[in-house]
Amino acid sequence: MSRRVADQLTIVLAGSASLAIAMGVGRFAFTPILPMMLHDGTVDLTVAGRLATANYVGYLVGALAAMLIPKEWPQTTIIKSALLLTVVLTALMALPFPTTWTGLRFLAGVASAIGFVFTSGWCLAELTGSTASIGSAIFTGPGAGIAVSGLAASVMTALSFTGQGAWTTFAVMSAAISALIWRVFRKPGRDVEPFYVGKARTSGRVPRTEMPMFAVAYGLAGFGYIVTATYLPVIAKNAIPDSPLLTVFWPLFGISAVVGSLLASRVRKSADARLYLIGSYLVQAAGVAMSVVWEDAVGLALSSILVGVPFTAISYFAMNEVRRIRSSHHARYMGLLTAVFAVGQIMGPPVVGAIFARQVNSDSAFALALGIASITLVVGAVILVAMIVMFPARVHHRPQER
Q1: Pick the residue with more confidence: 152 or 230?
Q2: Cα-to-chain-centroid distance, residue 361
């Protein structure tokens, strides 16, 4: 193995690990820990929804803040700060001060978004000139983080850990991984070459309604998956309360997300990215609905897989499409879409809370919430179909570099 290839693999592994901490712990560790906290009696589903919402609001704020951070600030310093902050905030969740938890989850969301944006940007810049499949491999991190945190939570549940012990364990795990990759993030970073996504517009007027329609469709995806992503272990516990498989569905979701990100990097780049998005939306819609119509271990496993596979692929395809629609100032519009997606996520837990306040039992409440989420994804797919008809795209293979 050449030195260059070894350096590239080191960057990929470090970037993937950083995203695993930012997303798998900073954002989604709460999901597998929630059943333990419910068992401990430290939260109920109403409080859980508030904590989840605080994290998603923090992610929105972090995404917006990342757009405002001066370019002169060293990217690697920001990445390390996000890693350190995630470790500290996760550890503080283990303290018995419930009044601070909302603020802690909010700040964890901020750190998660900033860590995701700057890790992605720095790694892609360092991997400029490498093959697309190597560069996109860093996006296996979120799914890997979810899978590892889910497997760890499964072990902790079997060992009768409390929620407090689980938060402490995740903090220690994050600290250990951060220490291993710390030295990789030593260069200040450089400008990243925009990835190629087909024929970008270089002349002519861009239809005013194209980007707003796309933003709405992407925001609907944020709402569509978040009910499952927030409450999957609780949904499983309600559906099959005595099953020994209760703790496998969240790790399965994460593993599926890893597979989906790898598949997304291998698709034909000359095709219209909106076709891949439509397929991803419909697969995820089927997965969300699956846990309602097939309420056993097989149905929940299929739901986990079908919702998980498009999880990071949707963001990957969407960012490609933004680059095509807006060949100039695309970073600004990527930030806009990330913010709209975050708004969709923010709406998820309050909607579930409102439904729970009006339903007689949790099974019917979750069924209604998941049904709405599935329909939302279908509506998003319909919007994308309309966009293909209204705004046809000419795409071609990447030209040779000059």
Answers
A1: 152
A2: 29
